[in-house]
Amino acid sequence: MEQRATTHHVHKLSFILLILSLAFPSSSFELRPSVADSTFLHSNDTAISDFRVLNRRALFQCPDLNPYLQINVTTQGDLSDEQFITVNVSGVLAKYVTSDPSYLSCKNQKCQKYGNNGDCEVRTCAGSLSFHVVNIRTNIEFVFFAGGFSTPCILTKTDVPLKFSNPNSPLHGHLSSIDSTATSMRLTWVSGDKEPQQVQYGDGKSQTSEVTTFSAADMCNSIVVPSPAKDFGWHDPGYIHTAVMSGLQPSSTFNYKYGSDAVGWSAEIQFRTPPAGGSDELKFIVFGDMGKAPLDSSAEHYIQPGSISVIKGMTEEVENGNVDSIFHIGDISYATGFLVEWDYFLNLITPLASKVSYMTAIGNHERDYSDSGSWYTGPDSGGECGVPYETYFPMPTPAKDKPWYSIEQGSVHFTVISTEHDWTEKSEQYEWMKTDMASVDRSKTPWLVFTGHRPMYSSLGADDQFLETVEPLLLNNKVDLVLFGHVHNYERTCSIYNSECLAIPEKDKNGIDTYDNTNYSAPVQAIVGMAGFSLEKFPDDAPSWSLVRISEFGYVRAHATKDELKLEFVNSDTKNVDDSFIITKK
Domain locations in the chain? Predict the structure, then answer.
């Protein structure tokens, strides 16, 4: 039986539904009790709507069919890997349109039937909608339905499913660092083909890919109800290819392409390696909670409205040579069990992640699920339980489902943790954190940056146990800067420990807050979760340790030398620097 699954597009202007090639259709309008219960359970954490479970309802033909209704798609031949499709809807009866002016404007009218006196007896309306599609390796149909999401029925649909010209295309190549030498870079990409492919780079070098994938059986499930990832949100991910380009030089530019003669090749892409650990300078971008948003006017599952402007701003930074590497610290795609959305996210970040090292930390919306081994047991991942995240973004971690690591670039040592795994004393991760930070050679990398997803300090509240357990490690190892996401705004503290300011920055000659760490007191902590998800407002009575609070979309741009670490919060809508601060060592 042909397998199908609904996608994440419902257009705001009409009830056109974009459908991938309907899975396991039910025999009635009613949802199975387990699916209905799952929708309720996951609604607050994964943004499930009635639309997202349409593929678990029967889509019967509507009674009293309108003989004039048609859907036509304007496209020449099969679909490319990314394009906008114009969907033309015609023959909508004007009596329904005029009763709901917000439905269609009905500017394009046609008389379908004239009476004996020459008056129009049946008038219809037509309109066009634009949809952005990427190659998801399965056929696409457009369905026009009525009855709402609870009792849907089909009015009409496209006659023939739309096919992608090459479902096996190598797509969404993105880079990551594998160690601190910067002489090797990992490239990861997606294809519909399971045979090994190649990355060709530099002056005639090549590496063959290792190939992996995951299945619905790898997703987590509740004992009581199915998870989105395992049931109504599942979509085949194709095959994930990864290859390591070795023999590179730090802080250098190379070209590469990936694919094979059998499936085709990507365009040739220029990328830059980061500086080696211990070198003098590093320029990096850091943010959390970005996700994705539609490039058309669709109403999509879990839209992160700021992500488009943030991507545009960071792309300009990369193209201007201002970025050596990127750190995305949790809540990566917000697919939350609707697997096709990883393809849309990977497509969105390609202008960045294909050109510089794109390092990540795991967040609650990648990992958390009950009875899955995550520290927090909410259903935030929708049943993904870290499997798609770790497959798409292989980091230099010690093992599978142990997503913590450290890496050195330029004058900075980054300790990247998982707040979603056990961090309590005597846990494996706690012992790793203690050992890693104690081993840093500060003559080589004078700056120690500690980062993960959930914060220790936020005006909106944080986990006191996390703070009490891990914060002493930061002070004992003289961590300079702590960066977290999870809370969807930007907030900066004083040099803080135990909820008290041990030092306050002073203004330099340019009026920039400057923390002097020559005589170390405590880390500066900042929340940088303002990269996409809907912003959170601050309370009126913020604590005294909170020095700067900004609820705007953007990203943080950082520049580290041996003596100075400067960070700037860039507002992605205005391109202005809304906050900047410096940490110095003399």
Answer: 51-157, 283-584
